[in-house]
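Researcher: Following up on the earlier apo prediction. This time include the ligand. It's fe (ii) ion, with the SMILES given after the sequence.
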Amino acid sequence: MIFITGDTHGHIDYSKLNTSNWPEQRSLTKEDFLIIAGDVAMRWYDAGPDGSLAGEDRDLIDWYNNKSFTTLFIDGNHENHNALNSYPVTMWNGGKVHQIADSVYHLMRGQVFTIDGSTFFTMGGAASTDRYNRVEGKSWWPGEMPSESELMEGIDNLTRYGMNVDYVITHCCGKSLFPLLFGYNLDSDTLTSYFDHLEFDYKLQFKHWYFGHYHKDRTIDNRYTCLYRAIERII
Ligand SMILES: [Fe+2]
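Model: Understood. Below is the ligand-bound prediction.
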């Protein structure tokens, strides 16, 4: 089984994954997956000079690793991207990952994974709207936005799959969804424009697109789901 949810924000919003709120996890095993669509903040603090993790990060990683299921996450804009990028890059189910713990994986940007026979395109990152009250290197990291090469890698990998995947997992969404999601337009950026570019210029085909970031639970046109508190079963 594969489930998906939205932002967990370190210790702030992870309680939605408690057994009391999500009892289905009792029957899951490490062969089952929970995907978190960004803003996981699994790593928030820099490691010490000896490589040791801050207690808060260690506890959070252990908490996920001790769950019944395997945790997969993309990055959002509330992450220590430097810390995530300090893990070795390995291949897992067809795409690049950072393995954070035995059963916790960061699904890197621009990858296509095949999990239980379904394909998943992943592209984390987003622009922070609260940048003004965050401090670079302490609570905000410039790596929140994908680089040109990560965006190109996404197009290359999707091209290998004929621009056709089962699921798209991102943190923010294409800018064309803003009026449907909010009733008005928001400023677009490189990434929200890129997603529209994939869909309307490259004609990306997909069954369902899941994203987080906007702290809402809403499905649009039966094809796009914005997730926050909801935990939905994909497969
Ligand atoms: Fe968030």
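Model: Residues 162 and 204 are 8 Å apart (CA to CA).
Researcher: Noted. I'll compare it with the apo version next.
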